[in-house]
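<instruction>
Derive C-alpha coordinates from the sequence

<record> Sequence and C-alpha coordinates follow
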Amino acid sequence: MQLRRTTGFFVLFLISAIVLSACGGGGGDSAPAPLPPTVTTSNVTTPSIDNALINGSVNPNGLATTAWFEYGTDPSLSTFTKTANQALAVGTVAQSINATILGLTPGTKYYFRVSASNTAGASSGTIGNFTTTSPPPTTTTTQAGSITITSAALNGSVNPNGLATTAWFEYGTDPTLTTFTKTADQAMGSAKTAGPITQPISGLIAATTYYFRVAATSTGGQPKGAILSFLTSANPPPVANAGADNSVIMGQSVTLNGSGSSDGGNGGTITYQWTQVGGTAATLSGATTPSPTFTAPTVSYPGDNLVFQLTVTSSRGPSASDNVVVTDKWGFFDNFSTNTTGNYTATLTGTRAAFIYDSAGQRVQVLTGDDNNVTFSHSTPPSNQGVFSMLFNPTVPYPTHAGIWIRLMQDSNNYYEVSNFDYGGTPIGTDVAGVRRIAGGSVVNEVPFATAYTQGSSYIIKITYSPAQVVMDAFGQTVTLPLTGSISVNSFMVDTGQQDAYYDNFLLEAKP
Protein backbone atom coordinates (compact mmCIF):
# COMPACT_ATOMS: atom_id res chain seq x y z
CA MET A 1 0.00 0.00 0.00
CA GLN A 2 2.81 2.36 0.95
CA LEU A 3 4.57 1.81 -2.30
CA ARG A 4 1.50 2.66 -4.33
CA ARG A 5 0.84 5.93 -2.49
CA THR A 6 4.41 7.02 -3.09
CA THR A 7 4.21 6.22 -6.74
CA GLY A 8 1.00 8.23 -7.13
CA PHE A 9 2.50 11.31 -5.53
CA PHE A 10 5.45 11.09 -7.91
CA VAL A 11 3.25 10.96 -10.92
CA LEU A 12 1.26 13.93 -9.67
CA PHE A 13 4.44 15.90 -9.09
CA LEU A 14 5.77 15.10 -12.50
CA ILE A 15 2.59 16.31 -14.19
CA SER A 16 2.66 19.53 -12.18
CA ALA A 17 6.27 20.10 -13.16
CA ILE A 18 5.45 19.67 -16.81
CA VAL A 19 2.56 22.12 -16.61
CA LEU A 20 4.67 24.66 -14.78
CA SER A 21 7.42 24.26 -17.34
CA ALA A 22 5.00 24.89 -20.16
CA CYS A 23 3.80 28.04 -18.43
CA GLY A 24 7.33 29.39 -18.07
CA GLY A 25 8.35 27.75 -14.91
CA GLY A 26 7.19 28.61 -11.66
CA GLY A 27 8.79 32.15 -11.73
CA GLY A 28 5.60 34.32 -12.83
CA ASP A 29 4.00 35.85 -16.22
CA SER A 30 6.22 36.57 -19.41
CA ALA A 31 5.55 39.54 -22.08
CA PRO A 32 4.80 38.60 -25.77
CA ALA A 33 7.46 39.27 -28.50
CA PRO A 34 7.27 42.85 -30.15
CA LEU A 35 5.83 43.08 -33.70
CA PRO A 36 6.59 45.43 -36.67
CA PRO A 37 3.78 47.76 -37.78
CA THR A 38 0.82 46.40 -39.70
CA VAL A 39 0.21 48.58 -42.84
CA THR A 40 -2.69 48.78 -45.29
CA THR A 41 -2.69 50.78 -48.59
CA SER A 42 -6.08 52.41 -49.26
CA ASN A 43 -7.80 54.01 -52.27
CA VAL A 44 -6.76 57.40 -53.59
CA THR A 45 -9.03 60.37 -53.18
CA THR A 46 -9.99 61.56 -56.70
CA PRO A 47 -6.76 62.79 -58.35
CA SER A 48 -6.50 66.02 -60.33
CA ILE A 49 -4.26 66.89 -63.25
CA ASP A 50 -1.10 67.27 -61.14
CA ASN A 51 -1.78 66.18 -57.57
CA ALA A 52 -3.52 63.48 -55.53
CA LEU A 53 -4.41 62.64 -51.94
CA ILE A 54 -3.15 59.14 -51.16
CA ASN A 55 -4.45 57.20 -48.14
CA GLY A 56 -3.58 54.25 -45.91
CA SER A 57 -3.62 52.95 -42.35
CA VAL A 58 -0.97 51.72 -39.91
CA ASN A 59 -1.24 49.70 -36.65
CA PRO A 60 1.85 50.50 -34.57
CA ASN A 61 1.36 47.17 -32.68
CA GLY A 62 2.12 48.91 -29.44
CA LEU A 63 5.43 50.46 -30.45
CA ALA A 64 6.48 54.02 -31.38
CA THR A 65 6.09 54.02 -35.13
CA THR A 66 6.96 56.29 -38.12
CA ALA A 67 4.99 56.00 -41.37
CA TRP A 68 5.27 57.42 -44.92
CA PHE A 69 4.22 56.85 -48.53
CA GLU A 70 6.29 55.73 -51.46
CA TYR A 71 5.14 56.60 -54.99
CA GLY A 72 6.32 56.82 -58.57
CA THR A 73 5.71 55.62 -62.10
CA ASP A 74 7.54 52.29 -61.61
CA PRO A 75 4.87 49.58 -61.12
CA SER A 76 7.18 47.68 -58.73
CA LEU A 77 8.30 50.86 -56.93
CA SER A 78 11.89 49.70 -57.15
CA THR A 79 12.51 53.41 -57.55
CA PHE A 80 10.18 55.85 -55.88
CA THR A 81 9.68 59.20 -54.22
CA LYS A 82 9.17 59.17 -50.45
CA THR A 83 6.79 61.52 -48.64
CA ALA A 84 7.62 63.14 -45.31
CA ASN A 85 7.64 60.90 -42.23
CA GLN A 86 4.56 60.90 -40.03
CA ALA A 87 4.90 59.95 -36.31
CA LEU A 88 2.02 57.77 -35.11
CA ALA A 89 0.60 57.49 -31.62
CA VAL A 90 1.62 54.34 -29.76
CA GLY A 91 -1.25 51.89 -29.80
CA THR A 92 -2.51 48.58 -30.99
CA VAL A 93 -5.24 49.73 -33.38
CA ALA A 94 -4.95 50.89 -37.00
CA GLN A 95 -4.53 54.62 -37.53
CA SER A 96 -5.43 56.42 -40.83
CA ILE A 97 -2.73 58.42 -42.57
CA ASN A 98 -2.68 60.40 -45.85
CA ALA A 99 -0.42 62.68 -47.87
CA THR A 100 -0.97 65.13 -50.73
CA ILE A 101 1.55 64.67 -53.50
CA LEU A 102 2.13 67.56 -55.89
CA GLY A 103 3.84 68.27 -59.18
CA LEU A 104 2.51 65.22 -60.94
CA THR A 105 2.33 64.90 -64.70
CA PRO A 106 -1.20 65.12 -66.13
CA GLY A 107 -2.59 61.95 -67.71
CA THR A 108 0.03 59.71 -66.05
CA LYS A 109 -0.39 56.46 -64.08
CA TYR A 110 1.27 56.52 -60.66
CA TYR A 111 1.89 53.69 -58.13
CA PHE A 112 2.01 54.08 -54.34
CA ARG A 113 2.08 52.19 -51.03
CA VAL A 114 2.20 52.81 -47.29
CA SER A 115 5.36 52.00 -45.38
CA ALA A 116 6.10 52.17 -41.64
CA SER A 117 8.85 51.27 -39.18
CA ASN A 118 9.28 50.63 -35.45
CA THR A 119 11.87 48.91 -33.28
CA ALA A 120 10.49 45.53 -34.29
CA GLY A 121 10.99 46.18 -38.00
CA ALA A 122 9.60 47.82 -41.13
CA SER A 123 6.54 46.97 -43.21
CA SER A 124 5.23 48.01 -46.66
CA GLY A 125 1.67 47.71 -47.86
CA THR A 126 0.36 46.49 -51.14
CA ILE A 127 0.97 48.69 -54.18
CA GLY A 128 -2.02 50.74 -55.35
CA ASN A 129 -2.29 53.03 -58.37
CA PHE A 130 -4.10 56.04 -59.80
CA THR A 131 -3.97 58.12 -62.97
CA THR A 132 -3.84 61.92 -63.02
CA THR A 133 -6.52 63.57 -65.12
CA SER A 134 -6.05 65.01 -68.67
CA PRO A 135 -8.58 67.86 -68.96
CA PRO A 136 -9.05 69.40 -72.42
CA PRO A 137 -8.18 73.06 -72.96
CA THR A 138 -10.79 75.64 -72.04
CA THR A 139 -11.67 77.71 -75.13
CA THR A 140 -13.51 81.05 -75.04
CA THR A 141 -14.43 82.99 -78.19
CA THR A 142 -14.56 86.78 -77.76
CA GLN A 143 -15.73 89.58 -80.03
CA ALA A 144 -13.82 90.32 -83.24
CA GLY A 145 -12.09 93.69 -83.61
CA SER A 146 -10.40 95.95 -86.18
CA ILE A 147 -13.20 95.25 -88.66
CA THR A 148 -12.81 96.85 -92.09
CA ILE A 149 -14.19 96.22 -95.55
CA THR A 150 -11.98 93.20 -96.17
CA SER A 151 -10.33 92.33 -92.87
CA ALA A 152 -10.85 91.74 -89.15
CA ALA A 153 -9.02 90.47 -86.07
CA LEU A 154 -10.41 87.29 -84.48
CA ASN A 155 -10.09 87.13 -80.69
CA GLY A 156 -10.43 84.55 -77.96
CA SER A 157 -8.72 82.99 -74.98
CA VAL A 158 -7.41 79.49 -74.25
CA ASN A 159 -6.54 77.85 -70.94
CA PRO A 160 -4.23 74.88 -71.66
CA ASN A 161 -5.12 73.39 -68.25
CA GLY A 162 -1.57 72.21 -67.74
CA LEU A 163 -1.15 70.38 -71.04
CA ALA A 164 0.85 71.42 -74.10
CA THR A 165 -1.82 73.02 -76.27
CA THR A 166 -2.16 74.29 -79.84
CA ALA A 167 -4.99 76.67 -80.81
CA TRP A 168 -6.46 78.22 -83.97
CA PHE A 169 -9.59 79.92 -85.32
CA GLU A 170 -12.24 78.61 -87.68
CA TYR A 171 -14.27 81.14 -89.68
CA GLY A 172 -16.56 81.44 -92.67
CA THR A 173 -20.00 82.52 -93.84
CA ASP A 174 -21.70 79.27 -92.71
CA PRO A 175 -23.51 80.02 -89.40
CA THR A 176 -22.83 76.47 -88.16
CA LEU A 177 -19.24 76.44 -89.41
CA THR A 178 -19.83 73.05 -90.96
CA THR A 179 -17.52 74.38 -93.60
CA PHE A 180 -14.88 76.88 -92.57
CA THR A 181 -11.43 78.32 -93.15
CA LYS A 182 -8.82 77.42 -90.54
CA THR A 183 -6.15 79.88 -89.45
CA ALA A 184 -2.56 78.94 -88.67
CA ASP A 185 -1.86 77.01 -85.46
CA GLN A 186 -0.60 78.95 -82.46
CA ALA A 187 1.30 77.33 -79.58
CA MET A 188 -0.41 78.19 -76.28
CA GLY A 189 2.05 76.49 -73.89
CA SER A 190 0.95 74.39 -70.92
CA ALA A 191 -0.09 76.96 -68.35
CA LYS A 192 -3.07 76.52 -66.07
CA THR A 193 -4.47 79.99 -66.69
CA ALA A 194 -6.23 81.46 -69.71
CA GLY A 195 -4.17 83.39 -72.24
CA PRO A 196 -5.35 85.59 -75.12
CA ILE A 197 -5.20 84.51 -78.73
CA THR A 198 -5.78 86.76 -81.74
CA GLN A 199 -5.46 86.31 -85.50
CA PRO A 200 -5.81 88.96 -88.24
CA ILE A 201 -7.66 87.73 -91.33
CA SER A 202 -8.06 89.39 -94.71
CA GLY A 203 -9.59 88.83 -98.12
CA LEU A 204 -13.12 89.19 -96.76
CA ILE A 205 -16.15 90.42 -98.67
CA ALA A 206 -17.62 93.80 -97.78
CA ALA A 207 -20.98 94.03 -95.98
CA THR A 208 -20.94 90.29 -95.21
CA THR A 209 -21.63 88.42 -91.95
CA TYR A 210 -18.83 86.09 -90.91
CA TYR A 211 -18.93 83.45 -88.15
CA PHE A 212 -15.94 82.30 -86.14
CA ARG A 213 -14.80 80.38 -83.08
CA VAL A 214 -11.58 79.51 -81.31
CA ALA A 215 -10.51 75.85 -81.15
CA ALA A 216 -7.66 74.08 -79.36
CA THR A 217 -6.18 70.64 -78.92
CA SER A 218 -4.05 68.78 -76.35
CA THR A 219 -3.80 65.20 -75.12
CA GLY A 220 -6.87 66.01 -73.06
CA GLY A 221 -9.10 66.67 -76.07
CA GLN A 222 -10.05 69.12 -78.79
CA PRO A 223 -12.75 71.53 -77.66
CA LYS A 224 -14.19 74.40 -79.71
CA GLY A 225 -15.49 77.68 -78.36
CA ALA A 226 -18.87 79.26 -78.94
CA ILE A 227 -19.61 80.60 -82.44
CA LEU A 228 -19.72 84.41 -82.67
CA SER A 229 -20.21 86.65 -85.70
CA PHE A 230 -19.21 90.03 -87.11
CA LEU A 231 -20.26 92.14 -90.11
CA THR A 232 -17.62 93.56 -92.42
CA SER A 233 -17.92 97.23 -93.26
CA ALA A 234 -19.90 98.35 -96.27
CA ASN A 235 -17.92 98.83 -99.46
CA PRO A 236 -17.93 102.63 -100.01
CA PRO A 237 -17.25 103.96 -103.47
CA PRO A 238 -13.92 105.53 -104.32
CA VAL A 239 -13.56 109.28 -104.63
CA ALA A 240 -13.68 110.68 -108.17
CA ASN A 241 -12.29 114.20 -108.60
CA ALA A 242 -12.16 115.49 -112.18
CA GLY A 243 -10.57 118.77 -111.12
CA ALA A 244 -11.82 122.34 -111.17
CA ASP A 245 -13.79 123.82 -114.04
CA ASN A 246 -11.69 126.09 -116.23
CA SER A 247 -11.66 127.95 -119.53
CA VAL A 248 -9.33 127.96 -122.50
CA ILE A 249 -9.14 129.53 -125.94
CA MET A 250 -9.80 127.18 -128.82
CA GLY A 251 -6.62 125.73 -130.24
CA GLN A 252 -4.91 125.60 -126.86
CA SER A 253 -3.55 122.37 -125.40
CA VAL A 254 -5.55 121.31 -122.35
CA THR A 255 -4.60 118.87 -119.60
CA LEU A 256 -7.37 117.45 -117.43
CA ASN A 257 -6.52 116.66 -113.82
CA GLY A 258 -7.96 113.66 -111.99
CA SER A 259 -5.06 113.34 -109.55
CA GLY A 260 -7.36 114.28 -106.66
CA SER A 261 -9.19 110.96 -107.04
CA SER A 262 -8.55 108.10 -104.63
CA ASP A 263 -9.85 104.83 -103.32
CA GLY A 264 -11.09 106.73 -100.30
CA GLY A 265 -8.38 105.34 -98.00
CA ASN A 266 -9.92 101.87 -98.16
CA GLY A 267 -6.85 99.93 -99.16
CA GLY A 268 -7.59 99.47 -102.86
CA THR A 269 -6.31 100.89 -106.11
CA ILE A 270 -8.22 102.74 -108.79
CA THR A 271 -8.32 102.82 -112.58
CA TYR A 272 -9.27 105.87 -114.64
CA GLN A 273 -11.59 106.31 -117.59
CA TRP A 274 -12.30 109.72 -119.14
CA THR A 275 -15.11 110.27 -121.62
CA GLN A 276 -16.56 113.42 -123.17
CA VAL A 277 -20.25 113.74 -122.38
CA GLY A 278 -21.00 117.21 -123.72
CA GLY A 279 -19.94 119.97 -126.09
CA THR A 280 -17.98 120.09 -129.31
CA ALA A 281 -16.08 116.85 -129.81
CA ALA A 282 -12.46 116.81 -128.71
CA THR A 283 -9.91 114.04 -129.12
CA LEU A 284 -8.57 112.82 -125.78
CA SER A 285 -5.08 111.43 -125.49
CA GLY A 286 -4.43 109.20 -122.46
CA ALA A 287 -8.08 108.69 -121.54
CA THR A 288 -7.17 105.95 -119.04
CA THR A 289 -4.61 108.08 -117.18
CA PRO A 290 -5.17 110.61 -114.38
CA SER A 291 -4.27 113.51 -116.67
CA PRO A 292 -5.30 113.14 -120.32
CA THR A 293 -4.72 115.93 -122.84
CA PHE A 294 -6.54 117.38 -125.83
CA THR A 295 -6.44 120.38 -128.13
CA ALA A 296 -9.42 122.66 -127.60
CA PRO A 297 -11.46 122.27 -130.78
CA THR A 298 -12.62 125.13 -132.98
CA VAL A 299 -15.98 126.41 -131.73
CA SER A 300 -18.49 128.96 -132.91
CA TYR A 301 -18.62 132.44 -131.45
CA PRO A 302 -18.65 132.96 -128.42
CA GLY A 303 -17.62 129.42 -127.44
CA ASP A 304 -18.87 126.12 -126.06
CA ASN A 305 -18.83 124.16 -122.82
CA LEU A 306 -16.95 120.87 -123.14
CA VAL A 307 -18.01 118.40 -120.45
CA PHE A 308 -15.72 115.51 -119.51
CA GLN A 309 -16.63 112.72 -117.12
CA LEU A 310 -14.04 110.88 -115.06
CA THR A 311 -15.02 107.42 -113.79
CA VAL A 312 -12.71 105.78 -111.27
CA THR A 313 -13.17 102.11 -110.44
CA SER A 314 -11.79 100.60 -107.26
CA SER A 315 -10.03 97.26 -107.18
CA ARG A 316 -12.61 96.50 -104.49
CA GLY A 317 -15.39 96.75 -107.08
CA PRO A 318 -17.39 99.98 -106.81
CA SER A 319 -17.02 102.99 -109.09
CA ALA A 320 -17.60 106.73 -108.83
CA SER A 321 -17.80 109.54 -111.38
CA ASP A 322 -17.23 113.29 -111.49
CA ASN A 323 -17.57 115.86 -114.27
CA VAL A 324 -15.45 118.84 -115.20
CA VAL A 325 -16.50 121.65 -117.52
CA VAL A 326 -13.90 123.20 -119.80
CA THR A 327 -15.22 126.38 -121.40
CA ASP A 328 -13.78 126.40 -124.89
CA LYS A 329 -13.79 130.09 -125.80
CA TRP A 330 -13.88 131.27 -129.36
CA GLY A 331 -10.76 133.22 -130.28
CA PHE A 332 -7.00 133.05 -130.53
CA PHE A 333 -4.25 132.93 -127.92
CA ASP A 334 -0.47 132.79 -128.00
CA ASN A 335 1.63 133.31 -124.90
CA PHE A 336 4.81 131.98 -126.55
CA SER A 337 5.29 129.24 -123.98
CA THR A 338 6.95 127.56 -126.93
CA ASN A 339 8.54 129.11 -130.01
CA THR A 340 5.62 129.78 -132.37
CA THR A 341 7.24 132.60 -134.34
CA GLY A 342 7.17 130.37 -137.39
CA ASN A 343 3.39 130.64 -137.40
CA TYR A 344 3.57 134.39 -138.07
CA THR A 345 4.07 136.21 -141.34
CA ALA A 346 6.87 138.72 -140.80
CA THR A 347 8.14 141.43 -143.15
CA LEU A 348 11.52 142.94 -142.29
CA THR A 349 12.72 146.28 -143.70
CA GLY A 350 16.34 147.32 -143.08
CA THR A 351 19.54 145.46 -142.41
CA ARG A 352 19.06 145.36 -138.67
CA ALA A 353 15.36 144.37 -138.63
CA ALA A 354 14.62 141.10 -136.82
CA PHE A 355 11.64 139.11 -135.54
CA ILE A 356 13.03 136.56 -133.04
CA TYR A 357 11.99 134.35 -130.11
CA ASP A 358 13.19 135.27 -126.63
CA SER A 359 13.29 131.87 -124.94
CA ALA A 360 14.35 133.29 -121.56
CA GLY A 361 11.31 135.54 -121.36
CA GLN A 362 9.05 133.32 -123.52
CA ARG A 363 8.06 136.21 -125.75
CA VAL A 364 8.80 137.76 -129.16
CA GLN A 365 11.49 140.39 -129.64
CA VAL A 366 11.40 142.86 -132.53
CA LEU A 367 14.60 144.69 -133.46
CA THR A 368 14.73 147.64 -135.83
CA GLY A 369 17.04 150.57 -136.40
CA ASP A 370 16.97 154.00 -137.92
CA ASP A 371 14.60 153.83 -140.87
CA ASN A 372 14.07 150.09 -140.19
CA ASN A 373 10.66 148.50 -139.88
CA VAL A 374 9.12 145.11 -138.84
CA THR A 375 5.60 144.00 -139.65
CA PHE A 376 4.20 140.66 -138.43
CA SER A 377 0.70 139.21 -138.63
CA HIS A 378 -1.35 136.14 -137.72
CA SER A 379 -4.78 134.90 -138.77
CA THR A 380 -7.70 134.80 -136.33
CA PRO A 381 -11.16 133.24 -136.46
CA PRO A 382 -13.43 135.70 -138.34
CA SER A 383 -15.98 137.82 -136.51
CA ASN A 384 -17.34 141.37 -136.54
CA GLN A 385 -17.07 141.57 -132.76
CA GLY A 386 -14.52 140.60 -130.17
CA VAL A 387 -11.83 141.72 -127.75
CA PHE A 388 -8.20 141.81 -128.84
CA SER A 389 -5.35 142.37 -126.36
CA MET A 390 -1.57 142.15 -126.28
CA LEU A 391 1.46 143.10 -124.21
CA PHE A 392 3.81 145.77 -125.57
CA ASN A 393 7.17 146.53 -123.94
CA PRO A 394 9.19 149.21 -125.88
CA THR A 395 12.88 149.20 -125.04
CA VAL A 396 15.03 151.22 -127.53
CA PRO A 397 13.87 154.05 -129.91
CA TYR A 398 15.65 155.31 -133.03
CA PRO A 399 15.58 158.81 -134.64
CA THR A 400 13.42 160.50 -135.53
CA HIS A 401 10.84 158.79 -133.35
CA ALA A 402 9.52 155.30 -132.56
CA GLY A 403 6.02 154.10 -133.33
CA ILE A 404 3.62 151.16 -133.27
CA TRP A 405 0.54 150.44 -135.42
CA ILE A 406 -1.88 147.67 -134.47
CA ARG A 407 -4.42 146.62 -137.11
CA LEU A 408 -7.40 144.29 -136.79
CA MET A 409 -7.89 143.37 -140.42
CA GLN A 410 -10.50 142.10 -142.80
CA ASP A 411 -8.10 142.77 -145.68
CA SER A 412 -5.45 145.32 -146.64
CA ASN A 413 -8.08 147.99 -147.40
CA ASN A 414 -10.48 147.37 -144.52
CA TYR A 415 -9.30 147.31 -140.91
CA TYR A 416 -9.36 148.96 -137.49
CA GLU A 417 -6.13 150.68 -136.47
CA VAL A 418 -4.62 151.89 -133.21
CA SER A 419 -1.37 153.84 -133.44
CA ASN A 420 0.91 155.57 -130.96
CA PHE A 421 4.40 157.05 -130.71
CA ASP A 422 6.97 158.03 -128.14
CA TYR A 423 6.84 161.77 -128.90
CA GLY A 424 3.38 162.66 -127.63
CA GLY A 425 0.41 163.98 -129.53
CA THR A 426 2.18 166.47 -131.83
CA PRO A 427 2.26 164.86 -135.26
CA ILE A 428 5.45 164.48 -137.24
CA GLY A 429 4.58 164.33 -140.89
CA THR A 430 1.45 162.24 -141.22
CA ASP A 431 1.99 160.16 -138.03
CA VAL A 432 -0.90 160.90 -135.71
CA ALA A 433 -1.70 158.86 -132.59
CA GLY A 434 -5.29 157.69 -132.64
CA VAL A 435 -7.97 155.07 -133.26
CA ARG A 436 -9.49 154.82 -136.73
CA ARG A 437 -11.46 152.66 -139.16
CA ILE A 438 -10.14 152.20 -142.66
CA ALA A 439 -12.69 151.29 -145.33
CA GLY A 440 -11.77 150.88 -148.98
CA GLY A 441 -8.27 152.15 -148.18
CA SER A 442 -9.50 155.45 -146.68
CA VAL A 443 -10.01 156.69 -143.13
CA VAL A 444 -13.77 156.90 -142.50
CA ASN A 445 -13.79 157.15 -138.70
CA GLU A 446 -11.05 158.53 -136.47
CA VAL A 447 -10.44 159.75 -132.91
CA PRO A 448 -6.93 161.02 -132.01
CA PHE A 449 -5.40 160.87 -128.52
CA ALA A 450 -2.35 162.54 -127.01
CA THR A 451 -0.89 160.04 -124.50
CA ALA A 452 2.54 158.92 -125.72
CA TYR A 453 4.24 155.73 -124.57
CA THR A 454 7.52 155.63 -122.65
CA GLN A 455 10.49 153.43 -123.36
CA GLY A 456 11.09 150.73 -120.75
CA SER A 457 7.43 150.53 -119.73
CA SER A 458 5.04 147.62 -120.27
CA TYR A 459 1.59 148.29 -121.73
CA ILE A 460 -1.45 146.10 -122.04
CA ILE A 461 -3.29 147.21 -125.14
CA LYS A 462 -6.94 146.21 -125.30
CA ILE A 463 -9.24 146.81 -128.27
CA THR A 464 -12.92 145.94 -128.08
CA TYR A 465 -14.76 146.05 -131.41
CA SER A 466 -18.35 145.56 -132.54
CA PRO A 467 -20.58 146.84 -135.38
CA ALA A 468 -21.37 149.87 -133.20
CA GLN A 469 -17.96 151.06 -131.99
CA VAL A 470 -14.31 150.42 -131.28
CA VAL A 471 -12.99 151.04 -127.77
CA MET A 472 -9.27 151.25 -127.15
CA ASP A 473 -8.03 150.95 -123.57
CA ALA A 474 -4.28 151.51 -123.51
CA PHE A 475 -1.45 153.90 -122.62
CA GLY A 476 -3.41 155.20 -119.64
CA GLN A 477 -6.35 156.34 -121.74
CA THR A 478 -9.68 154.96 -122.99
CA VAL A 479 -10.79 156.10 -126.44
CA THR A 480 -14.13 155.27 -128.04
CA LEU A 481 -14.57 155.39 -131.80
CA PRO A 482 -18.21 155.44 -132.95
CA LEU A 483 -18.66 153.57 -136.21
CA THR A 484 -20.62 154.33 -139.37
CA GLY A 485 -19.92 150.80 -140.54
CA SER A 486 -18.07 147.67 -139.44
CA ILE A 487 -15.76 144.98 -140.77
CA SER A 488 -15.23 141.29 -140.08
CA VAL A 489 -11.82 140.82 -138.46
CA ASN A 490 -9.91 137.68 -139.56
CA SER A 491 -6.31 138.60 -138.69
CA PHE A 492 -4.18 141.03 -136.74
CA MET A 493 -1.04 142.89 -137.79
CA VAL A 494 1.57 144.72 -135.73
CA ASP A 495 3.77 147.30 -137.49
CA THR A 496 6.83 148.61 -135.57
CA GLY A 497 9.05 151.37 -136.87
CA GLN A 498 12.38 152.52 -135.42
CA GLN A 499 11.57 150.65 -132.20
CA ASP A 500 13.11 147.69 -130.36
CA ALA A 501 10.39 146.03 -128.28
CA TYR A 502 9.03 142.83 -126.75
CA TYR A 503 5.53 141.44 -127.51
CA ASP A 504 3.57 138.77 -125.66
CA ASN A 505 0.12 137.35 -124.84
CA PHE A 506 -1.75 137.93 -128.07
CA LEU A 507 -5.38 137.21 -127.23
CA LEU A 508 -8.61 137.43 -129.15
CA GLU A 509 -11.82 136.41 -127.39
CA ALA A 510 -15.52 136.98 -127.61
CA LYS A 511 -16.89 140.32 -126.54
CA PRO A 512 -18.53 140.04 -123.09
